[in-house]
Amino acid sequence: MQRSGYGQFCPVSVAAEIVAERWTPLILRELLMESHRFNDILRGVPLISRSLLSKRLKELEHAGLVVHRAPPAVPIPGYYLTEAGEALRPIIMALGEWGHRYVRSNFEHQNLDPSLLMWDIRRRARAEYLPAGRTLIEFAFIDQPRADRNWWLLKEPESDTHDLCLHHPGYDVDLTITTDLLTMTRIWMGDLDIPVALRTRALRMEGLNVLRLSFQDWIGLSVFADVV
Q: Which of 128, 134, 177, 225 has an alpha carbon within 20 to 30 A of 16's alpha carbon?
């Protein structure tokens, strides 16, 4: 693919031409977090257009970082990192840790996104701490517009994965978590302790005791929550 570069032989330069392209680090983050289907990657980078995401994925394929294939026992093909792409894991993680430690000093309104937050929660939630049967957990963000206010996390019986539902799936809700978007984001990023949020009523939970008492275990938190 033809595109302008930095015109330098330095390895930092030639690597940046591939990895530092706008949106590419976020796409790599999604692939590293086991998002393989096009729509799943798009949900993790919601502000990118479908056409630009397709273009960036093709560029990563051309550079040898990504391959589009269907693994054994998976009927639908997806995007998977090659050995060269996987080798970027410590770099992407270090970039996130650096950003968490030195750049993100507060949460600006324009950076708060209930869709991205819930997508992160969905893939980090720990099914082993939830009951074996069907479990439906509702998140209610009281400060959001009606279209973004309610989200449902559904775990089917004996499943180790979760579905994120934009509409009520029709089952009884086992736990309702009521809060505002900023509070839940601060909890997720490790900036606000869950006991403090509960004590101040910034976070409220109603439902099964087993889910309320194990909230800190099954919620998972961000991969960067432990960064000081």
A: 225
**C-alpha count within 13 angstroms, C-beta hemisphere, residue 98:** 6
Instruction: Return d(Cα 103, Cα 190) in angstroms, integer.
Output: 15
Rounded Cα–Cα distance for residues 44 and 26 (Å): 8
Task: Look at residue 4 and tell me whether its pLDDT is greater than 80.
Answer: no
* DSSP labels, 32-66: HTT--SHHHHHHHSTTS-HHHHHHHHHHHHHTTSE
Structural class in CATH, domain 11-103: mainly alpha
Q: Does domain 109-218 have CATH number 3.30.1050.10?
A: yes
* SS3 label, residue 218: helix
Sign of CA dihedral 122, 211, 155, 69: positive
Q: What is the pTM of this model?
A: 0.85
Q: What is the pLDDT of residues 118-156, one digit of tens each?
A: 999 998 999 899 988 999 999 999 999 999 999 999 999
